[in-house]
C-alpha cells in the first residue's frame, strides 16, 4: 500500500501537470477564441446593419401604399410626378433609369470587350503596363468629377452636335459609359484570363487562326463571365446619382427622345429629399423610389448568381 | 504581433473612420477661445441653403464673442430644417418659407424669427435679347404657353425652362408671386442656386430664377413691368418676388439659442453682415408679409 502510494505519488504530480495542460486553454486557443469572437461580432454587426437597412427602406417605401393609399400599379405606371399636389406616377423615372442603364451598357460593352481582348490575348505586356493603370485610374475618379466634366464638356458638345439644351439621356449615357467602362473591362479581363490555356492550345493546334480562336473559343467559353461583368456595370449605372443628376436635366417627364431632359430614380431622390417633410406623401414617395432602387439591385445580384451557376454547369459538361 | 490584436486594431481603425464620417456631416462647426461670461451650450441650425452662408458667418462671429458656445450650421434644405426642428432634433430650423406653407409641419408649435429678406428675380441667358417682361408673359412662359423668345420681343429661339426642385423654398416663393396657383409646365429641375446660375449662363435660350446675390454679369436679370430687381424695390414691395429667411425654434429656446437669435437681429448683423452677403436687412423693410402672402405697410 505504501509502495503503491509512493509509486502513484510521482505520476500523480505529473498527471496534475498534464491535467492542467490538457484541460486549460493554451494561449493559442485563447487567441483563437478572441479572434473568433471578434469576427462573429463583426459579422453580426454587418448582418444587423444590412437587415435594419432593408427593413427601414422597405417599411418607409411601402408607406406610400399603406398610409397614403396610392395604388402600386398607379405608382409604377403613372406618368405625372408632382408629389406636392398628390400625383406620384414614377414611370418617367423608372423609364429614365432603365434607358440610361441599358444605353450605357450597350455602348460600353464592345469597348470593354475589345480592350480586354487586347490586354489578355493580343498584347498582354503593353496591356498590363499601359491599360491597367488607365483603367484603375478611371475607377478612382469620384463621380462628382465625372458629373462636372459632363456638365462642362459633354452637355455643350451634345448641344452643338444634336441641338436642344444638351441635357438628356444621351449626355447621361456618355458620362455613364466612361464610368462603367472600367468595371466591365476589368471583370471581362478576369474572365478571359480564367479560360483554360489548353482550350486555346487545342484550338491553335487544330489550325484555327488567332481571330478564330478568340471569337469562337475564348469569348464563347468566357460568355458567362462577360455577362456578369456587364450586369455589374449596369448595376453601377443604375445606382449612380450625382453624375447623372448633373447632366440629365431632371425633368420628371416621360423621355420622348434621347436629347430632351429626363430624370432617373436617383436624380429625383437626391434633388427632392431636402425639401420634403418626414411622414408626408412627397417624402414617402421618395422612399418608394428608394425601394425600387433596392429591389433592382437585389435583382441584379440574383441575376449575377444565376448566370454564374449556369456558367459553371457548362464548364462541367 | 498575433492575429487577434491585428483584428482588434482593424476594428479600432474602422470605428475611428466611422467617427470621422459622423463628424464630417457638420459643415461648419466653430469654437474659439476668448474670455466672456457664463453663456454656454450647443446650438445647431439646420436647413435652408439660401440662409446657410449668412447663418454660418454670423455663427462664427457669435462664437468668437461667446467662446463657450458651440454653434453648428448645416444645409439640407428648408424641408429638412422645418422637420428637424419640429422633431426637436435641432435648436434652429432654417427655412425660406413660412412653416404654414409646408404640409406636415405644425406651424403653431414653432416660433418664427425672421432674420433677413431675399429678393429673387427671373434670369435669362444673355443672347435671348430679353431684358424686361410683363408679369403675364412670365407666367405664360413658366406655364408653357409661350415657347419661343420671339413672342416676347427676343430672338427666334426656343425657351428652355430651368426650374428648381419641387418643394424648394425659392420655387415656392417664385410660384406664389408669379404663377399664383397655376401649375408650372414640366421642365428641367435643378436643386441649387449654384447649378441654376451655371446652367442658365451656359445654355442658349434658358430662363430660371435666382436670389439677387447669385446674379453675375454672365446672366441677364429680367425686369418685370419695367421694375428693376433691386433691394430698394423689394423694401417697398414694388418688386413682388421676395421672401423672408426664417429661423424657427420649438418651445422656449435655451439661453444660447436665444442669445444667437438676438444677435442675428442686432444692428451689427443686420446693417453690415446681412448687406455684405447680398441679403436685405429686415430693419429696412417698409412692408411686412404674412404666411398667406398678404402685404401690409409697416
TrEMBL record, chain A:
Spans through the membrane: 37-57, 93-118, 130-155, 161-184, 217-238, 285-308
Described purpose of this protein according to its UniProt entry: Part of the binding-protein-dependent transport system for phosphate; probably responsible for the translocation of the substrate across the membrane.
Family per record: Belongs to the binding-protein-dependent transport system permease family. CysTW subfamily.
Domain ABC transmembrane type-1: 94-304
Alphabetized UniProt keyword annotations: Cell membrane, Membrane, Phosphate transport, Transmembrane, Transmembrane helix, Transport
Membrane topology: Multi-pass membrane protein
Localization per Swiss-Prot or TrEMBL: Cell membrane
Pfam families referenced in this protein's UniProt entry, alphabetically: BPD_transp_1 (PF00528)
PROSITE patterns: ABC_TM1
InterPro entries given in the database record: MetI-like (IPR000515), MetI-like_sf (IPR035906), Phosphate_PstC (IPR011864), Phosphate_Transport_Permease (IPR051124)
Principal place of residence: membrane
Protein name, as recorded: Phosphate transport system permease protein
From TrEMBL, chain B:
Alphabetical UniProt keywords: Cell membrane, Lipoprotein, Membrane, Palmitate, Phosphate transport, Signal, Transport
Tagged with keyword Signal: yes
Gene3D superfamilies, alphabetized: Periplasmic binding protein-like II
Stated role: Part of the ABC transporter complex PstSACB involved in phosphate import.
Similarity annotation: Belongs to the PstS family.
Domain PBP as annotated: residue spans: 33-266
Membrane topology summary: Lipid-anchor
Main location: membrane
Record organism: Levilactobacillus tangyuanensis
Protein name in UniProt: Phosphate-binding protein
Superkingdom of origin organism: Bacteria
Subunit field text: The complex is composed of two ATP-binding proteins (PstB), two transmembrane proteins (PstC and PstA) and a solute-binding protein (PstS).
Signal peptide stretch: 1-24
Location in or out of the cell: Cell membrane
Amino acid at each position: 500500500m505504501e509502495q503503491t502510494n509512493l509509486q502513484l505519488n510521482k505520476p500523480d504530480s505529473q498527471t496534475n501537470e498534464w491535467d492542467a495542460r490538457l484541460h486549460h486553454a493554451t494561449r493559442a486557443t485563447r487567441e483563437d477564441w478572441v479572434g473568433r469572437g471578434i469576427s462573429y461580432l463583426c459579422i453580426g454587426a454587418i448582418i444587423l446593419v444590412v437587415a435594419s437597412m432593408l427593413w427601414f427602406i422597405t417599411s418607409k417605401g411601402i408607406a406610400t401604399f399603406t398610409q397614403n393609399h396610392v395604388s402600386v400599379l398607379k405608382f409604377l405606371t403613372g406618368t405625372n410626378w408632382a408629389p406636392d399636389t398628390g400625383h406620384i406616377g414614377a414611370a418617367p423615372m423608372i423609364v429614365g433609369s432603365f434607358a440610361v442603364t441599358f444605353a450605357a451598357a450597350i455602348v460600353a460593352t464592345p469597348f470593354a470587350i475589345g480592350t480586354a481582348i487586347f490586354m489578355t490575348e493580343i498584347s498582354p505586356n503593353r496591356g498590363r503596363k499601359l491599360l491597367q493603370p488607365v483603367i484603375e485610374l478611371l475607377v478612382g475618379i469620384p463621380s462628382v468629377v465625372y458629373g462636372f466634366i459632363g456638365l462642362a464638356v459633354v452637355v455643350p458638345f451634345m448641344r452643338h452636335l444634336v441641338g436642344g439644351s444638351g441635357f438628356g439621356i444621351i449626355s447621361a449615357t456618355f458620362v455613364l459609359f466612361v464610368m462603367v467602362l472600367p468595371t466591365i473591362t476589368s471583370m471581362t479581363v478576369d474572365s478571359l484570363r480564367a479560360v483554360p490555356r489548353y482550350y486555346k492550345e487545342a484550338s491553335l493546334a487544330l489550325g484555327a487562326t488567332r481571330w478564330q480562336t478568340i471569337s469562337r473559343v475564348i469569348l464563347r467559353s468566357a460568355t458567362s463571365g462577360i455577362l456578369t461583368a456587364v450586369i455589374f456595370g449596369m448595376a453601377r449605372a443604375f445606382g449612380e446619382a450625382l453624375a447623372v443628376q448633373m447632366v440629365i436635366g431632371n425633368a420628371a417627364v416621360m423621355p420622348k427622345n434621347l436629347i430632351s431632359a429626363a430624370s432617373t430614380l436617383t436624380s429625383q431622390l437626391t434633388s427632392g429629399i431636402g425639401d420634403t417633410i418626414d411622414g408626408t406623401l412627397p417624402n414617402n414617395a421618395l422612399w418608394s423610389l428608394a425601394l425600387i432602387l433596392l429591389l433592382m439591385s437585389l435583382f441584379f445580384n440574383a441575376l449575377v448568381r444565376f448566370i454564374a451557376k449556369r456558367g459553371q454547369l457548362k464548364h462541367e459538361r | 504581433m498575433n492575429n487577434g490584436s491585428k483584428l482588434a486594431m482593424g476594428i479600432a481603425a474602422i470605428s475611428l473612420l466611422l467617427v470621422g464620417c459622423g463628424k464630417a456631416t457638420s459643415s461648419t462647426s466653430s469654437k474659439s477661445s476668448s474670455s466672456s461670461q457664463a453663456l454656454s451650450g450647443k446650438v445647431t441650425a439646420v436647413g435652408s441653403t439660401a440662409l446657410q452662408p449668412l447663418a454660418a458667418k454670423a455663427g462664427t462671429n457669435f462664437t468668437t464673442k461667446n467662446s463657450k458656445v458651440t454653434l453648428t450650421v448645416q444645409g439640407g434644405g428648408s424641408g429638412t430644417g422645418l422637420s428637424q426642428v419640429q422633431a426637436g432634433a435641432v435648436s434652429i430650423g432654417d427655412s425660406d418659407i413660412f412653416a404654414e406653407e409646408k404640409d406636415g409641419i405644425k406651424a403653431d408649435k414653432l416660433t418664427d424669427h425672421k432674420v433677413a429678406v431675399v429678393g429673387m428675380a427671373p434670369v435669362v441667358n444673355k443672347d435671348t435679347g430679353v431684358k424686361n417682361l410683363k408679369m403675364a408673359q412670365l407666367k405664360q412662359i413658366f406655364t408653357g404657353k409661350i415657347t419661343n423668345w420671339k413672342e416676347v420681343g427676343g430672338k427666334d429661339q426656343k425657351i428652355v425652362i430651368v426650374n428648381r426642385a419641387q418643394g424648394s423654398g425659392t420655387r415656392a416663393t417664385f410660384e406664389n408671386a408669379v404663377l399664383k396657383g397655376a401649375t408650372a409646365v414640366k421642365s428641367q429641375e435643378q436643386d441649387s442656386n449654384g447649378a441654376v446660375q451655371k446652367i442658365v449662363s451656359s445654355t442658349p435660350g434658358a430662363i430660371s430664377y435666382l436670389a439677387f446675390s447669385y446674379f453675375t454679369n454672365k446672366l441677364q436679370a429680367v425686369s418685370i413691368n419695367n421694375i428693376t430687381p433691386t433691394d430698394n424695390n423689394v423694401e417697398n414691395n414694388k418688386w413682388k418676388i421676395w421672401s423672408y429667411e426664417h429661423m424657427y425654434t420649438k418651445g422656449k429656446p435655451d439661453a444660447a439659442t436665444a442669445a444667437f437669435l438676438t444677435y442675428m437681429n442686432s444692428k451689427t448683423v443686420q446693417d453690415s453682415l446681412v448687406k455684405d452677403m447680398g441679403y436685405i436687412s429686415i430693419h429696412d423693410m417698409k412692408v411686412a408679409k404674412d404666411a398667406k402672402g398678404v402685404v401690409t405697410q409697416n
